[in-house]
């Protein structure tokens, strides 16, 4: 079981996320300074205070198209609404984390959630919360570094971002495989794939992501409820 993680161990653990976050962060930084004509440090500041990953890329496109701040806020909220469910599942794990708890909630992303829930853990809750904090901090650090580098280079280098979004897809695939290897449960994967396929077929493009998230969440909750009832029924004494 893991105990305290040093910086080298955290880097090794978060290496797949680093390879996804730095190039995507650079793409965000480049788009930020070229499409919005803002100073480079604006990209760094946004990544420090917002840290919304793909939603930051979306916000650049919306602002460049003349959208208002309220529209950008609503769009980012809808895209990141899935994090509400992530947070609920980690409330017990973060309980008693003190000042670290607020940052653990703020820094929770899809990739960080996957890593926190799939890595081996010891019985020392306090130490594991410190490990979770460092993992979250390193992951945001990768995004901030990528954003800053991209913003610096944005005005000096011609940057073709065609296909860069596939890095995020590849990262999700790796994390899904790691989740399956750690938990040994394939049902959530099949439910997610089926929900995504159904929403891809019947919903407009701008509603497919939120539709798939809602459908997957509802199906998993129903599945969990039936599973819980079945376990309770097996535990009841038979007269």
TrEMBL record:
GO terms for biological process: L-valine transmembrane transport. Pfam families: AzlC. The keyword Cell membrane applies. Keywords: Cell membrane, Membrane, Transmembrane, Transmembrane helix, Transport. InterPro entries: Brnchd-chn_aa_trnsp_permease (IPR011606). The chain crosses the membrane at residues 13-33, 45-66, 187-203, 209-226. It is found in: Cell membrane. One of its GO terms (cellular component) is plasma membrane. It is a multi-pass membrane protein. It comes from the Bacteria. Belongs to the AzlC family. This is Branched-chain amino acid ABC transporter permease.
